[in-house]
Amino acid sequence: MPEPLDPQAIFDLVELHLLGSHPTLTGAELAAAVGIPMDLARARWRSLGFTSVGDDEVAFTEADLNALRLTQRMHDLGMIDPDDEAALIRTLGRSFARLAEWQITMLARTVGTNPDLDITGLAAVMNEVTPVIEEVQNYIWRRHTLSAASRLLLAPSADDDADGDGAYTAIGFADIVGYTRQTRSLSQGDLASLVEHFEDQAQAIITGHHGRIIKTIGDEILFAVDSAADAAAIALDLVEEHLIDEDFPQLRVGVAWGSVLQRLGDVFGPTVNIASRLTSIARPGRALIDKELAEAIEGNENFKLRRMRRMSVKGYRRLEPWALRRPLEEGELPPVAAVLHEKGQDLLRAVDEIQGRAERVALGEGSE
Q1: In this structure, which topology does domain 7-154 adopt according to CATH?
Q2: Class of the domain covering 166-327
Q3: What is the pLDDT of residues 70-105, one digit of tens each?
């Protein structure tokens, strides 16, 4: 049997592969080479989410030096607002940290499923995989940048709309019902499958109606969409998906419509807070919207609205929720009733089949 790969040897290989060399520089030398104060260099390093390193510890490579120079160049060109610098670096660090955790897990799985892999073979795998990952990441970044540019440059502004609603955004939360209880009863594998299926299907529904996911927060998804009608359609599709797909968790959804502060890929403001409060009071399998969104889609034949009594929630003493449903044709059953009716019909057919078999057995036309 081949000897298992030494963890230190693997780390040295990964370090050399990703950074091009082993560390030869201290933090003080890095800051001096770029011409910035050591305190600033240290702050940028920590904002990226990396662990603290002593000023005189040899822990940096030429790649680190080049990255710090590029960051300073962006600052000198005015691409980075000094007031937003720390927040921007934190956002980059957190985003890539999650991506890196997933990618290194993939690499570990590759090593684990190839017991005969030696250090040379591992290097060959990394030399093949890394350029592919970098190219895909670059493409995804360019595509998302184009989408952001489209929203900034081509979305209607308040000046384009007589009512001033053109600049509004719908913010929604989709929350898994009973998630805490399920985490206690499911295995880690089953829980991972639940979350993966939830995020995958939710993303398909949200992007299918021109929305975008802002972030996932454990058992909850925060999404945004620039059209009031699309926002309502997303809300209904999300709460109804459980009726179509039993593996998709039951949700409660809250959506609000208004002005939103968008900063570093996140959203802030009263509209976000109202959407969160609506989600917290929504019944399982139901979607609630605020008064502003109800007014924005009023008259749309694809939706049915019902004003509910005002409620007192954290931060809002008289929040006015509206229940969102689909309109029904004459004689049509609501989604839940339709599903129950279909299951009932399936049960009746199964009973008829069993009775038919019993009768045939009784007549000697079949066997048990």
Answers
A1: Multidrug-efflux Transporter Regulator; Chain: A; Domain 2 (1.10.1660)
A2: alpha beta
A3: 888 888 888 877 777 777 788 888 788 878 888 888
